[in-house]
Every structure is written in structure tokens, then in C-alpha cells.
């Protein structure tokens, strides 16, 4: 069971990392709000169209549905818009690295709400993973202008929301442990929210947008959707203290995919150290699970 949780959490990290890199291509021709509308709506349609086959609706409970709806009002819509804006201002590496603070919020809330108090070994693993993310952020932020440092609040806010969601979804899983249901309901609600926001700001029209940018954001949405359902699958099988730090290793995937797909991506010695520290934190987590 825990082995499945580890595999799903690492798979989620890979999808999150790839989505951050693909976002760079979409942002070249489509603004963040329109991109979020395309991304979230594409994934919502994909989940809703496959839900008759993948979701056990007969097992639904109202407490779980209400939890998933509440989560959907913020996640993934708010995280998507914050991440897109941070990606635009800071680049995928800084945005991804600062998102690694999510485990701190997730583990603290899991201890308070679920009684999942991590042992000393797990706590050490979380701290080491976050330390690795900090090193990656500082290394990647060397080229960020002073005026852009205020934009660091964007990925930090996204990390807070993502960290809150992970223990919250486990509350819903207590009566309806269905990751596909949680993802489907959450994305459906998020799609309504983002379309309403885009419509209110006159951002629904894509007639002047490059079709390639729209397709890139559709691909981003599918990656984020895959990441969400695999993360929820991991949370249904393992504790937050194990899953959250593993998912937070996605900056490594961002570096790998960025090196492969983005021109000019450089991996210096500080980045190597950050990756090594993060991997050491993951190893500590796995050794103490």
C-alpha cells in the first residue's frame, strides 16, 4: 500500500514538473487568465467525460462531495492562476522550487486535523526536502531582478493552498475514498470559477490568441489533471507526511524537462547541490516510512 503511495506521489511530481515547463510555451502567446481558463476547462471536460467509467458515483456521500466542492473552489483554479503568473514573472524553476514549501503546510495541518503526527525521521525528511527546494530557488533566482522579488509571494501562496488541500482531501476520503471523484468534482467547480472570472474580465475570447498557445495550455491542463489524480491516489494510500514531500520533488522534474525542452536552461553547481539535498530528503523519508 505504501509502495503504491510512493510511486503515485513521484509520478504526480513528474506531471507537475512537466506542466510547469509546458506553461512557458503557452505564455508566449496567451495571457495567464485565459491560459488558466483553457487549462482548467480542458481537464474538467476530460474528467467529466470519463467519469461514468472511472468514478463510482453510487458510493458517493454528501460529506465527501461537500469537501471536494469546497476544495474545487480554490484548487486547482487558484493554484493554476498563481502558478501561471509566477511562471510568467519568475520562470518555471523559481516558481517550482518555491512551491516546495507546500509540505510544511500540509504536514502541520495533517497533524492538527487528522492526527498524522510525523516521527522524527519523517520530520527530518520533510525539512531536508524543503532545504533542497530552497537551494534550488536561490540558485535559480540569481537572474531575477530586484523588482520581481515581490512576485515570490505568488508561488508561496500557491504552496499554502496546495498544502492545505492535501490533508483536506483526506477528510473527504474518510467516507468516499475515490481519487477520480475528488479530481472530477474539484475540476468541475474550478472550471466554473475560472470561466466566471475570465468572463467578468472579458478574457474568454481566444480569437486573437495563437492556436498553438491554446493547445499548449490544453496540454498543461491534462498534465496537471494527471498530477492531481495521481497525488490524490497517493493520499488515499499513504499519510500526508510521506506523500506531500514526495510530490514536492517536482522541481527536479522541472529541471529535467526544462533542460530538454527549453533553450538556454543551465544547471550550475548550486542546482546540483539542491537536487542532491532534495534526493537525500526523499531517501530519509523512504527509509523511515
Question: What topology does this entry show?
Answer:
Layout: H1 2-26, H2 32-54, H3 62-72, H4 77-90, H5 92-98, H6 102-114, H7 120-140, H8 153-173, H9 179-200, H10 211-237, H11 240-247, H12 250-261, H13 269-288
Helix pairs in contact: 1-5, 1-10, 1-11, 1-12, 2-4, 2-9, 2-10, 3-8, 3-9, 4-5, 4-8, 5-7, 5-12, 6-8, 6-11, 7-11, 7-13, 9-10
Q: How does this structure look, described?
A:
The protein is mainly alpha-helical and 289 residues long. The chain has one domain (2-288). It is built from 13 helices and no strands. The longest helix is centred in the last third of the chain and has 27 residues, at 211-237. The chain is globular, with a radius of gyration of 18 Å. The model has no long low-confidence stretch (mean pLDDT 82).
Approximately what portion of the residues adopt beta-strand conformation?
under 5%
Order of helices and strands: HHHHHHHHHHHHH
Please state the CA-atom Rg, rounded to the nearest Å: 18 Å
Averaged pLDDT: 82
Structural class determined from secondary elements:
mainly alpha
Largest sheet: none
Unreliable residue runs: none
Shape: globular
The count of strands amounts to: 0
Question: What is the count of DSSP helices, taking H or I runs of 4+ residues?
Answer: 13
The domain count comes to 1
- End-to-end CA span: 12 Å
Write out key terms for the chains shown:
289 residues, mainly alpha, 13 helices, 78% helix, 0% strand
Short description:
By secondary structure, the chain is mostly helical. Helix content is 78%, strand content 0%.
